[in-house]
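User: Quick sanity check before I run a bigger batch. Here is a single chain. Can you write out its predicted 3D structure?
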Amino acid sequence: MQYIENKTFDEIEVGDSADLARKLSTKDIELFAVMSGDVNPAHLDVEYAKSDMFHKVIAHGMWGGSLISAVLGTELPGPGTIYLNQSLNFHKPVGLGDMITVRVTVKEKHDKGYRVTLACECINQNGEIVIDGDATVIAPTKKVRRPRVLLPEVHLHETGAQYQRLIAATRDLDPIRTAVVHPCDTISLIGALEAAKNDLIVPVLIGPKKKIQAAAEEANYDINAIDIIDVPHSHAAAQKAVEMVRQGTVSALMKGKLHTDEIMEAVVDRANGLTTERRISHVFVLDVPHYPKPLFITDAAINIYPDLDDKRDIIQNSIDLAHALGIDVPKVAVLSAVETVYPKIASTIDAAALCKMADRGQITGGLLDGPLAFDNAISKTAAEAKGITSAVAGEADILIAPDLEAGNMIAKQLIYLAGAESAGIVLGARVPIILTSRADGTLSRLASSALALLFANYVQQQTP
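Assistant: Done. Predicted structure follows.
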């Protein structure tokens, strides 16, 4: 147990000193910005900082001041100290990686009011004073010794960072002409129009024209220059979109305000649909706080109880998407409740068979392992605790759920409990299908559109 103990006024002598050392990190700057609201680009924008007077990212000036406060409150005088006054002089900037030693030294004691004046200095690793000044405090008169409070861990997550990288990867690609099926509400219409604004798609809006125009007016968007195909209802919109794919006039579909079953019914129609030899499946691509890369989860929307052949195609679809995103050898974790083959749990048998299929070339382009439980798939610590030796465990790019129920629960838990951002796409049809949820925001719809564009470009490159 660590303790914090103060020095009372009677114990303090002129010349007494205390110090602490802290190395400035990016996390320190970001946490201070979050706490203070100070988002001056000199502290947070690398490109701007290069052109600023110091030519580098620097700490907030009061970051050093807060370290002085920490020494006064925890070391000298310590708990019970009351701040009265603090003067600060800033001499040099503090840059990333600088080691700052903060030292306070007692200059004067005043019996009246138990006041103490301390000289305060912040000194960098080169022995240079970066901040100095004086502090006046009321020193405690009673002895205090308390256990040191353990601070909570703080994890910083830049919302949408993974998706911004996806969108940036499309900058040199031409947008794909996309049939937007029944965009008759503001959310789905804005998603399509923003994707067009970001040069991800060229939208063709299919649905009741008056409803589409009403949604545009409500959202304050001008759609006069955009192609609109007037059909009476959502079923007709889905059928028309599929027909346009078959005619070669569009290269992707985007779901608007209609149920997934409606658009997929037209897609899987045996006579006039968009099926191929590959099983159609859905892939979530999640931006999960504290996970270092995009996390693919499949299938959570199309195949309810996939058999072994279905799972083979589901895996291959997700591997192909990973390749389109620039992941050369995606790591695929085939999930179950346990990490050993157990005959009473069918998904463990499937996992073992799928891994052997990969060994025999029936699944290509990825590194498979399974069965793996969810914790073993995404946490190296959990995998090591169970003695699992695997190149996939703890580093999975793709999670293969045993069925739709499990996949949907995993994805929704990460979205609503872990704060993950979600994008989604359907693969295995003739063209990619941007399949977003009604609850998805604009960024998710943009990311899903970026997935479709990257995948369509990848397929085109693979075609002889």
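Residues 442-462 form the longest helix (21 residues).

User: Great, the batch can go ahead then.
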